[in-house]
Amino acid sequence: MSLKAYKKKRKFAKTPEPSATIKKSSGKKLIFVVHEHHASHLHWDLRLEMDGVLKSWAVPKIPPITKNIKRLAIQVEDHPLAYANFHGIIPEGNYGAGKMIIWDKGKYNLLDKNPKKIIAELHGKKLKGKYALIKTSYGNKKGWLFFKI
Ligand code: MN
Prior knowledge:
The chain is mainly β. It is about 5% helix and about 50% strand.
C-alpha cells in the first residue's frame, strides 16, 4: 500500500485535505465512505478501507441503492484513512478543486476479495446490503463495475 500517488497530486499547504499517513486498521470493523465531489465533472468517490488506506473509485453516476443498476467505477489513487472524515472545499487551482460532501458513510464487512472482485456488505445510511466491484476485462485497466447484489 502506498500513498505516493495521493501525495504527488497535492500541495498540503494549499488544500485542506488530510496528509498522506498510512494507519494500522483499528480492528475488524472496516469503514467506507462515498464522497459527492463537485469537481469539474460531478462524480461520486467510493472509498473502502483496506490494508490501512482507503481504496478509491470515481463513479461518474450516482451510486445505486437498488439492484439491477450497474455503475462504472474508475479506480483512482489510494487515499489516507483520515479522508473518511474529510469534507469541505478544495480550492481552485488544486487537484480535484471543488466541493467535497460526505454522501454516505458507515462500516462494512469484506465478504470476498481477489484481484478482480470485491464483495462487501455495506452498512451505510444510503448504501445498505451486499455490493460487488468487478474488474472489467476490456478497455481501461482501472475500470470496474459497481452494483448491488
Ligand atoms: Mn473525486
